[in-house]
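Narrative of activities, Objective 1.

The group set out to show that a structural description can be obtained from nothing but a protein's sequence at a throughput compatible with the screening campaign. Below is one input-output pair from the validation batch, recorded exactly as produced.
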Amino acid sequence: MSTARLLLNCYFERLYELLEQKKSRLCQRATELLENIVREQNIFPLADRDKFQAYHDAVQAFIIERIESYNPIGQQYSFDGITSQEAFEIDLQLNWYDSRAEFTTLQLLAKKLTSELQSDDQLPQLADKIIAQCGAYPDQSIIKDYQSDPDTQKLPDYIVSLTIEEIIK
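Output recorded for this entry:
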């Protein structure tokens, strides 16, 4: 495994630890953002509690799903028997947003930062630098794509991405 790949694994692990630790705050803040966005964009009347509850439940489930997507233990079993490139391509086909450019940026930064690496003990600090510069992958792609073409079906992912980016900064 290359040093850059090792650093990216550490990046995902750091995201998992950070978000798992702040899960209750993420859930609370996501609810606040959902209320604000529904009101500001007039998506549906906030008085429609059933509709709001459905979106709220989806957002809460997406938060847990996203945190688990960074779990280093779960990652190795997600796409058993296929290469990481094949898993990446399947992921792109399943999502409504295109995160290839964001992932390329993440890879390039990891490669650049590995030039600073003198020992494996520095991996967590370098992973924190990636988080500070890039945020949590694939948030930037989700936010950009939602803002360019808002759609209620995209709303839960968008809320989760906004919330994660706010919490990790």
